[in-house]
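Exercise 7b. Backbone tokens:
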């Protein structure tokens, strides 16, 4: 039947892994003139094709419906093929593969297949949605189509990242996301580390103890006696001051997280949801005492976490490798892992996980516990690498624009790259340009400007977005092979 269809569309390329027969009907995806479609074929002229909408095509007694990848058709796809619907990852190794352009999912799946990692394809924070001008539904639809195209039937996740409010949760729930990453950063009291004992005591006593289901004296009595053995003979026995500091800093993080967890349970009782807690965006690394307090209190309040993202030591800057002491990282990671093991064995989550190759080596060599890694910006940079290779003029325009935007766009990021350190471009050819994507300053300058480039004010961003998408569609094979190569580098160190 596919051959017949090819008579009508001789230049169409069939995605072989997408071919599925169901109830006497054939489903497959094609690429035709750099556009992708779902095709449904039948020997009879049906009045309805499982509610899909598209263009009817008759070829020598066979009937086809050629469907574009619309939101309506994505809904039909998910109700017909359950493997195109996201599911919770659970406490197994997983990898977050944020895709801000919505065209990287198939390559992500090619790279992650057979690695043992569960892919979390649709991963987008509220900030990313705002900066790219996309909806949560669009993000999920892109993932569903990618999963269908690759015939990936082992399950994938969808992560609403850095959610702060019940409204954020509703937005992601309504779109069908299954993983909810809670960002309680507004409730972190960073000043705690500089408080006197008296101030700490005052703040500690004024925590919302009714919500913590505890009383300050009882709490101190109980936690003051904590003396737990972590990894390799390391003992955690926090001092009074460490306990007070930890609770003043994170007490309201704990109650806010509990409130959101209850909200999910009450408003969405039958929904397959899992919850991550991220405390990565704070000034200071998360101490073991702080981690212990957060984990033990949440466990006591009945909050089940699938993963927790501490702020680790060293610098996890966007788009470049870890900067810091890897031995210290290894030591702390093992202790954090031991704490996670005490409270249900949730995963440690590595935020700003793009391109942290030396950290992956360490975690891979530890080979214990479970990990979740979040990446996003690195896929945008591979898109730009592809643009640099095949459309250097466009790439240079984007680079110049990103440099101009830098002072403004870097504000919400923790980065040290500088536009003035980007090598002189005047004598560069295509190969030099694509290698610019290996230079840390260029990577960061390009990285932080993604929102302005894709969805900034004015006509220039519309032009950039359109031309980037067109270039990547025309050179899809190169783009996908760049992504696959790059993500194999991300995944290989885990063994
Ligand atoms: Zn984060």
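Sequence design result:
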């Amino acid at each position: 039947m596919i051959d017949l269809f090819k008579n009508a569309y001789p230049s169409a390329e069939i995605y072989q892994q997408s071919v599925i027969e169901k109830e006497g009907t054939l489903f497959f995806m094609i690429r035709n003139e750099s556009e992708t479609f779902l095709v449904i074929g039948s020997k009879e002229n049906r009045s309805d094709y499982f509610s899909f909408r598209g263009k009817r095509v008759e070829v020598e007694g066979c009937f086809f419906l050629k469907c574009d990848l619309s939101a309506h058709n994505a809904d039909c796809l998910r109700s017909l093929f359950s493997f195109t619907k996201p599911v919770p990852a659970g406490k197994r190794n997983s990898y977050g593969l944020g895709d801000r352009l919505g065209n990287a999912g198939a390559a992500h799946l090619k790279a992650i297949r057979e690695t043992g990692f569960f892919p979390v394809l649709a991963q987008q924070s509220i900030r990313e949605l705002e900066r790219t001008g996309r909806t949560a539904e669009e993000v999920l639809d892109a993932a569903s189509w990618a999963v269908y195209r690759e015939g990936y039937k082992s399950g994938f996740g969808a992560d609403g990242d850095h959610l702060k409010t019940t409204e954020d949760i509703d937005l992601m729930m309504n779109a069908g996301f299954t993983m909810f990453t809670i960002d309680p950063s507004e409730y972190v009291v960073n000043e705690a580390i500089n408080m006197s004992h008296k101030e700490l005591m005052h703040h500690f006593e004024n925590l919302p103890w009714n919500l913590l289901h505890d009383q300050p004296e009882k709490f101190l009595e109980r936690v003051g006696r904590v003396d737990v053995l972590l990894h390799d003979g390391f003992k955690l026995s926090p001092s009074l001051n460490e306990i007070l500091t930890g609770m003043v800093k994170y007490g309201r993080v704990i109650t806010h997280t509990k409130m959101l967890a209850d909200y999910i349970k009450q408003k969405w009782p039958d929904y397959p949801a899992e919850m991550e807690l991220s405390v990565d965006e704070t000034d200071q690394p998360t101490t073991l005492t702080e981690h212990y307090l957060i984990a033990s209190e949440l466990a006591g309040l009945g909050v089940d976490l699938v993963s927790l993202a501490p702020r680790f030591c060293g610098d996890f800057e966007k788009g470049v490798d870890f900067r810091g002491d890897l031995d210290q990282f290894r030591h702390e990671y093992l202790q954090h892992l031991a704490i996670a093991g005490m409270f249900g064995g949730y995963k440690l989550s590595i935020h700003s996980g793009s391109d942290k190759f030396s950290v992956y080596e360490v975690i891979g060599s530890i080979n214990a516990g479970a990990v979740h890694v979040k990446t996003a910006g690195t896929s945008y940079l591979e898109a730009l690498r592809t643009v640099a290779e095949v459309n250097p003029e466009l790439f240079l325009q984007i680079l110049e624009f990103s440099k101009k935007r830098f002072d403004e766009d870097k504000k919400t990021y923790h980065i040290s790259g500088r536009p003035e350190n980007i090598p002189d471009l005047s004598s560069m050819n295509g190969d030099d340009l694509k290698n610019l994507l290996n230079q840390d300053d260029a990577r960061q300058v390009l990285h932080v400007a993604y929102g302005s480039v894709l969805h900034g004010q004015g006509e220039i961003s519309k032009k950039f977005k359109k031309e980037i998408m067109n270039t990547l569609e025309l050179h899809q094979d190169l783009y996908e092979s760049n992504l696959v190569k790059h993500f194999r580098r991300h995944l290989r160190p885990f063994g």
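Instructor comment: DSSP finds 20 helices and 15 strands in the chain. The longest helix spans residues 240-267.
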